[in-house]
């Protein structure tokens, strides 16, 4: 898709008529103009993107079958692709996820036994739980939310999905009320772009609109609440080109490369295994030979490059920065591979000696990228150097951009090293409150008084001190089941403290 788009773009630069379109709305957002094929070319073909046939009023079964996509004359020209590998199961090596996937396929393919008397199916006992209220649903999915809402690993394993946004808002409001913190309200500033229409669309009406994909007018949050940024409306400020963004892209790329390579080594992906091709360039220790099964780091890096680099299509300086840091993350995994050797032979003799490459603990790769984070280089975009035969200065604007160091000692602009992290903008002072830069300041940050690490009050509060809050936590304990049929519980409580920055 990228190659085709670049071809059309070059034809447009040559004063030719070229239109870049896509068949889906999501893909069209990646193109200049954001036009779909059926909108730009007025195509009369109306393909259904769902498996069920179109519902026709007062139709027969034959009419519904005829309206199905497979009944179209174009169906025999359509190339069919099938998904054969569950990537979530293959990468995580989770047996419970595999069982859940099989249960979904069993239900979707209609292989679940049907009760002849009622005509209903029965879900497996470990498949789902039935509750009678939203409060019971929250207690089932998020038990003891008061004590566990700070545990990111615990939260990442739980989620509640709903068909309507109203139900989602109600559930979020109930869950936030369980957290013993002060509620903060963030209200939007709504206005019309055309002042002449201000009388037709008053501010109160704009505030009442609940647009899908955008936050509500009155966004209520508590410190510690989990927030997902659905849409990056203000990109230069919310997702800037600072060194923190550089580290985020690098560690994400390294994580994908590491996870896929580890899945290959475990045999969870059928299309890869041991590292193919020539032997490693590094010489083996004295008296040893390469002969073991090295991890296929090449497969992991190729997958990460295709998976993460595909969205960086703009060709601007921010895309170049993201691509560079993605590559640095993949390179960090490759350069930190460990060499393991083993001696084989009878009675401990070394008849055969083999060495192979293996993955290190991911903590080692993260530490390596953290060192690169502190040594990240500031860069700027500049047109690429001219070719040896280029003499026309007007071609300078047509050259592709490249990243160059901002403060190089050499008079000639230097290109940053592939293994270095690069950034475009200086990081904001996260100790000071600056909403324009995305910094909330230190006020209200939760810290750990006894820790000397990154979560300690000294570092989190920037040396400004902290406040101590005391509250009483209550929960049900010492529950007993009485036959028949109720559960009796005592109410336990304890006094605890929480520390927030000034």
Q: What is the chain-wise order of helices and strands?
A: HHHHHHHHHHEHEHHEHHEEHEEEEEEHEE
Regions with little confidence, pLDDT below 50 for 5+ residues: 48-53
- Helix/strand structural class: alpha+beta
| Fraction of helical residues | 25-40%
Our count of helices gives: 17
Biggest β-sheet strands, sense, barrel? 3 strands, mixed
Radius of gyration using CA atoms only: 29 Å
Query: What's the total count of β strands?
Result: 13
> Overall mean pLDDT score?
77
Overview of the structural elements:
Its main location: secreted. Keywords: ATP-binding, Developmental protein, Disulfide bond, DNA damage, DNA recombination, DNA repair, Extracellular matrix, Glycoprotein, Helicase, Hydrolase, Lipoprotein, Nucleotide-binding, Secreted, Wnt signaling pathway. Residues 14-52, 56-114 form the DNA helicase Pif1-like DEAD-box helicase domain. It catalyses: ATP + H2O = ADP + phosphate + H(+). This protein is globular. It contains 17 helices and 13 strands. The two termini are 51 Å apart. By secondary structure, the chain is an alpha+beta fold. Helix content is 32%, strand content 16%. Mean pLDDT is 77; it is low at 48-53. α13 packs across α14 (297-309), α13 (243-266) crosses α15 and α13 (243-266) runs antiparallel to α16. The strands form five sheets. It has a three-stranded mixed beta sheet, with no helix packed on it. A three-stranded mixed beta sheet has the order 7-6-8. A three-stranded antiparallel beta sheet has the order 11-13-12, with no helix packed on it.
